[in-house]
Write a structure and sequence with these properties.
With 211 residues, the chain is α/β, with parallel strands linked by helices. The chain contains 6 helices and 7 strands. The strands form 2 sheets. It has a 5-stranded mixed beta sheet with strand order 1-7-6-4-5. A two-stranded parallel sheet has the order 2-3. The longest helix has 23 residues.
């Protein structure tokens, strides 16, 4: 009996050692799906690609790239000179209008057809959750009705899609955004197919938190 117990003890020790060694040798297998998604500049994906914002430290891939700040904080848009010089972190600014990535409000925006304009900083948080937003600056009621219909259809399918009035861009303009993707065009080019194609391709394509 003593020999059996001793043998079991040895086996147990060996098992612990094997596990410890396996953990030491357990290296990162590579970038995760969401990291690959935000770095994917494939022109066949609907929308213009904007590289993920590097955050306040100016270094992409660090923890501050998607950091939260207090609700009500407003980030300006980068000037073209800032973008050309790569100085988008000091002062911190968004690299596209509407924005497609970067630090944002700690409060995400709900996915629905909003009746009042939403802070862009809240919508960026919602895009971090894998969502798609349609932004519009138009008085064309047919265009607004079409947008709201497409958004509602997708919401009924439990997709993360919303729309907002947005006067911070050119008049009679529509924009569709997801994380690192922007399709911006005049109202005259709006179609149901264009909206749905963007949503189908980009909804939850970037989804680091697994929503």
């Amino acid at each position: 009996m003593t020999m059996i117990l001793a043998g079991l003890g040895v086996i147990g020790i060996v098992a612990v050692l094997v596990y410890a060694v396996s953990q030491v040798n357990n290296v990162d297998s590579g970038p995760r799906d969401w990291q690959l998604a935000q770095e994917d500049a494939d022109p066949n994906i609907p929308g213009v690609y904007y590289p993920p914002h590097p955050g306040a430290d100016g270094q992409p891939g660090t923890t501050d790239d998607r950091i939260h700040f207090a609700p009500g904080t407003v980030l300006p848009f980068c000037t073209q000179e800032q973008i050309d010089a790569g100085t988008v972190s000091d002062p911190l600014c968004y690299t596209s209008n509407p924005p497609t990535s970067g630090p944002h409000s700690s409060t995400p925006q709900g996915f629905t057809n909003l009746e009042n304009p939403a802070p862009k900083e809240n919508i960026v948080h919602s895009m971090e959750h894998g969502g798609v937003f349609v932004w519009y600056n138009t008085t064309d009621q047919d265009a607004i009705d079409l947008i709201k219909s497409v958004v509602q259809d997708n919401d009924d399918r439990r997709r993360f899609v919303g729309s907002t009035i947005y006067t911070g861009m050119e008049e009679e303009t529509i924009a569709i955004t997801s994380w690192t993707r922007l399709d911006k065009f005049p109202v005259s080019e709006l179609t149901k197919e264009r909206l749905q194609e963007f949503i189908d391709a980009n909804h939850k394509r970037f989804n680091p938190e697994g929503f």
